[in-house]
Amino acid sequence: MRLDKFLKVSRLIKRRTLAKEVAEQGRISINGVEAKASTNVKEGDELAVRFGQKIVRVKVDQLKETTRKEEAGEMYTLLGEERIPEN
What is annotated about its quaternary structure and interactions (predicted)? Predict the structure, then answer.
């Protein structure tokens, strides 16, 4: 599954176009490697997404084409959040 679609379906990012823009800015990495919106995501991959002043790390548990709001959280496990110190 494409990275931008996974982020939308899992509701980590609300819109696919926004997920694409975040990836193009170099703010997403998969297993420590910077990822594009079209990069394939597999179960077991670890994603790091930078939102403003924090980085959210998740592990991909499931891949589903569609999901209900209540089930979206089952697609990943939150590994941690860390704040980026302001310069």
Answer: Associates with stalled 50S ribosomal subunits. Binds to RqcH, 23S rRNA and the P-site tRNA. Does not require RqcH for association with 50S subunits.
